[in-house]
Structure to design on (385 residues):
């Protein structure tokens, strides 16, 4: 029996890219009875069905049959949760569980500071690299030594795309340790029911005769929705732009869009409505502009429904690995609103192009970015250790 300990920042029911990858890894390992698992992470207030979490509590519970050790937190600084119990809980699990493999999800400097004392331990160490620290410049410099120690100790470094290895000043130096495992989307989660199909038909009817462009994600700077709002103002009334999601920039985006009747903001959309929009749309808009967007799960989801994407060129990000320029969609210079609007017009005026790129998009996702492929990659990785 191989014992595996994962250390992400949070875990389901908290929803985010790293949290989903951690759960996907857990699901992949659960298909093989030779692995025993535990997860240790911070706690954060969230709920989904019977799973309810409260930030300040330190609790042990189970998700998908795997024990999750959630460490209560008292504050958050520079996007980092701070916990008084994480160190003690990590010590307990390292001494009692004695993992054969530790998978640490980077970046997470606070958790890493506690992990440092165990790096000389007798276990295989996988550094699962989600993104470089870009926004917090002080943290980036402050924890440079810590990052180097993690990379030096790692038996294997996982990147989500080859472009991120090339574009990262850290990973490019440790290329010989790197393995690419693309993120995945769940086919089950993307199942189209009769009710969803009916809702998609309603959306199409509401936008009859229009080119429906859909974008979704947190309303935060690196997602680039301000550029989509600006591009909309350069388009004629053939277009309808729907921007789903919420975030710190929601009110600012709405104010910027005032007077543009083409744009709507439905807020945080339900799972069913999300799939309905994917079905109903003509073009998927993914305007992320920095390497904070390391991969693009929503981009892969949109492509799964056979629709072309319009993206910016984001140097060093996996965005342009997920969607291939002139194959699965159109790619334009980063932040260039006029060219982005022109790309939307190009796709609007050429139905055959939309169909061809949409078909290629679906095929790319089915080949590389589904749960089944991810499971095989994870199990191959474990065998390689």
């Amino acid at each position: 029996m191989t014992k595996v300990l994962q250390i992400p920042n949070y875990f389901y029911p908290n929803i985010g890219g790293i949290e989903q990858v951690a759960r996907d890894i857990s699901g992949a390992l659960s298909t093989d009875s030779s692995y025993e698992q535990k997860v240790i992470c911070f706690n954060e207030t969230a709920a989904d069905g019977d799973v309810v979490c409260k930030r300040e509590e330190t609790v042990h519970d189970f998700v998908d049959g795997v024990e999750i050790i959630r460490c209560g937190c008292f504050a958050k600084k520079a996007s980092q949760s701070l916990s008084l119990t994480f160190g003690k809980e990590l010590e307990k699990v390292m001494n009692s569980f004695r993992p054969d493999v530790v998978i640490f999800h980077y970046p997470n400097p606070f958790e890493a500071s506690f992990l440092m004392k165990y790096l000389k331990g007798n276990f295989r160490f996988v550094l699962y690299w989600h993104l470089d620290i870009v926004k917090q410049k002080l943290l980036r410099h402050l924890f440079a030594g810590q990052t180097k120690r993690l990379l030096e100790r790692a038996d294997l470094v996982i990147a989500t795309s080859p472009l991120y290895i090339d574009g990262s000043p850290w990973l490019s130096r440790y290329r010989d340790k790197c393995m690419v495992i693309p993120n995945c989307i769940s086919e089950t989660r993307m199942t189209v029911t009769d009710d969803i199909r009916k809702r998609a038909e309603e959306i199409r009817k509401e936008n009859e005769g229009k080119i429906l462009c859909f974008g979704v994600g947190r309303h935060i700077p690196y997602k680039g929705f301000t550029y989509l709002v600006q591009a909309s103002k350069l388009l004629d009334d053939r277009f309808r732009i729907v921007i789903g999601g919420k975030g710190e920039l929601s009110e600012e985006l709405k104010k910027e869009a005032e007077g543009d009747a083409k744009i709507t903001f439905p807020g945080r959309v339900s799972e069913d409505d999300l799939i309905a929009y994917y079905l109903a749309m003509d073009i998927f808009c993914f305007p992320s502009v920095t390497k904070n967007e390391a991969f693009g799960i929503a981009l892969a989801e949109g492509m799964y429904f056979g629709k072309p994407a319009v993206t910016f060129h984001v140097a060093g990000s996996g965005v342009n690995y997920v969607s291939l320029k002139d194959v699965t969609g159109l790619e334009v210079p980063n932040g260039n609103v006029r060219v982005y609007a022109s790309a939307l017009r190009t796709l609007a005026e050429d139905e055959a192009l939309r169909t061809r790129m949409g078909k290629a998009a679906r095929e790319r996702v089915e080949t590389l970015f589904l749960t089944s492929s991810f499971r095989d990659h994870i199990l191959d990785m474990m065998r390689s250790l």
In short: The chain has two domains: 2-184+370-384, 194-368. The chain has a mean pLDDT of 93. Residues 90 and 96 are 10 Å apart (CA to CA).
